[in-house]
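ARCHIVE RECORD
Type: protein–small molecule complex
Small molecule: adenosine-5'-triphosphate
Source of inputs: curated submission
Record status: active
Notes field left blank by submitter.
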Amino acid sequence: MNDILPEVSGTWRYLESVVRDIVQSYGYEEIRLPLLEYTELFQRSIGEVTDIVEKEMYTFLDRNGESLTLRPEATASVVRAGMTNGLLHNQRQKLWTSGPMFRYEKPQKGRYRQFYQFDVEALGYDGPDVDAELIIMSARMWRQLGISRIKLEINSLGAPESRARYREALVDYFNSVKSELDEDSMRRLGQNPLRILDSKNPDMQSVVEAAPVMLEYLDDASAEHFAGLKRLLDAAGIEYTVNPRLVRGLDYYSRTVFEWVTDALGSQGAVCSGGRYDGLVEKLGGRATPAIGWAMGIERFVALFEACGGKAPPSNADVYVAALGEGTRERAFALAEELRDAGLGVEMNLGAGSFKSQMKRADKSNAGYALILGEQELADGRIGLKPLRSNEGQESVPLEEIAATLKDRLNQ
Ligand code: ATP
Ligand code: MG
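STRUCTURE (tokenized, with ligand):
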């Protein structure tokens, strides 16, 4: 688990605000959710025989003896919130949320035990238009942020009936290569053979690659749905590859799944992943509701943005105000508020200090200008204006003109 320090939090805030503005502009609304849910919610939604539920959840009993879990992902919570608040009753919902998720994984670059996700969910939409919209929306984020080293992979997992037929084919295949399966996969063969395809064990890759693919078992309606998605992506000029081995690590997916992957971050290449989960609401006790969503890992997003040369715009104050000598501090405080009223960002020197030490702090603040109020200036009704990012000298400006002068300079 990491502390997000001031030296990087500006980039986080910038990226989060860009993404937030984009999804809001597509008509998605924010929902804020608890970090804790009943353990059962994740067991039932993500699936008992998945990495997350089998070995990654932070689960504990509360004082009442009830089993609670720190959320490992947001989709289950969004669905739960939709149901408990009656949001899915004859209504459709386009929602986004963001915040920390918790998984007891082996920590490494791009994989942490508390990590952050930005999450978008559309409930009550059967697509494929919304499937395309969610992808087009994420493509806009990359474009707007100058992120180029990213590729889209899509697949369809079909409807439950066709997946059941596929499951049989998989069981037959894996039984025929049983001696090559690792322990996890042997166990999954009986319980959840699809999960074997998601194995992260390098020794299993050749076995997985020779397995039959879902696309050959697709039902007609799912095939038409998938073709519809591809047509919309083509028309929007979004490039993609169909990856028939993309299955995703959670059980609730059906039909469309997709992943934005990068080669810029080493082995943790999945930046934004999502899919359709048409059966989940019903499985959790609600009325059958088609739905789809994606989640983006913020740490990987930040790392990718930086790897592509991205830099967040500065968010420091415009001006640093220094006060020197008797009786200047009160006037400097009032002036700082006047400048803030005029729309400027103002950092006030706090604590005493010589001219030199106050200028050192001014420099460190990253502000573009320092204002220096000394006893003589105050008596003359003037103030010193010193550019901090150029070699120009200090000048003296009448106090009543300083706001306008500064605004002028900052706009140049
Ligand atoms: P991976 O294949 O890398 O394990 P995943 O399939 O488990 O990813 P999801 O559950 O779909 O990932 O989560 C969506 C996104 O959250 C991922 O694409 C990734 O960017 C991010 N993510 C997932 N797990 C972690 C983690 N432990 N630390 C940091 N980011 C993560
Ligand atoms: Mg994972």
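CURATOR ANNOTATION: The pocket of magnesium ion (ligand 2) is lined by residues 249 (CB under 6 Å).
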